[in-house]
Amino acid sequence: MHAEISGQLLIADQVVDNYETRAHCIQNVRNEVRLRTFPAVTLFYLWAKVLFFGVNEGVVWIKVYDSNKNVVWQKRCEGLVNKRMEPVPAGIDMAFQPRFVVHEEGIFHFVMTDEYGTTLAHYPLYISHSES
Description:
With 132 residues, the chain is mostly beta strands.
């Protein structure tokens, strides 16, 4: 675990932010996503949790690498600040719909790093071809 910032990542069919309850509803967590044709654009959600330890703000990068280690999507999340009151652990949750073109089956790596390139979280996702 990083000394100041830690993270978690999940891929799901849908992530809904419920502002009233201050929570996310995550539906159908995925280890594999099946696509009917290639090339295709991805259709899923990425949920990210950033936790702060001894700090109340930070910057993270989230990058997606294809099977050939090429970056196919990236997002710099800056100005992240603690949204929670004590005694709840300091942090922030976010959801994205990363859109990128998939040309072939393979393992795609979703990686969260701090601003210095230290890996905070990693989520491998297999994208496969489905006939139906």
